[in-house]
Design goal:
There is one protein chain. With 144 residues, the chain is mainly beta. It has a domain of 85 residues: Immunoglobulin-like (Sandwich), CATH 2.60.40. 10% of the residues lie in helices and 31% in strands. It is built from 2 helices and 7 strands; from the N terminus they run ααβββββββ. The strands form 2 sheets. Strands 2, 4, 5, 6 and 7 form a 5-stranded antiparallel β-sheet that branches. Strand 6 and strand 7 form a beta hairpin.
């Protein structure tokens, strides 16, 4: 059998070969349109969804301070803790006689008193006072 030779021309030798093609990236599967739920399905979905809680009212940190003799037993009582003097004891951190405590209170108007060694006292630094049912004065703090 005779083989046929092909002649190579100089132009064929000089032409560069085309770069090999990279295989195409696999295509992402098509998203199909979601089936529209029937009306009953909507009611069931709404019933299963958790109820939204109302936003909590913003609260503000309020520090109460009073001066008393070093070593005194001092607490804070008011409308924010049902007037319970044991609910919020105050601390003299530095031993200087300045007692303090901090509460986080929502917006509002609060009446309060200090209880120093068992004696109920209005805040001497507060300029807003109201008369209470006992005929004495309560200090008033407005948080807003």
């Amino acid at each position: 059998m005779a083989t046929k030779k092909t002649a190579k021309t100089p132009a064929a030798k000089a032409a560069p070969k085309a770069p090999a093609r990279k295989p195409a990236a696999p295509k992402a599967p098509r998203k199909t349109a979601a089936k529209k739920p029937e009306t009953d399905d909507l009611f069931e979905a709404a019933a299963k969804a958790p109820a939204r809680k109302p936003a909590a009212p913003k609260a503000t940190r309020v520090t109460f301070r009073v001066r008393a003799e070093v070593g005194s037993k001092v607490s804070l009582a008011g409308s924010f803790n049902d007037w319970d003097p044991a609910a919020k004891p105050m601390v003299d951190k530095d031993g200087t006689g300045e007692f303090a405590c901090t509460l986080t209170l929502p917006k509002g108007r609060y009446e309060y008193k200090f209880v120093i060694n068992g004696t109920w006292c209005a805040d001497p630094e507060c300029t807003d006072w109201v008369q209470n049912d006992m005929g004495t004065l309560n200090s008033v703090k407005v948080v807003g």
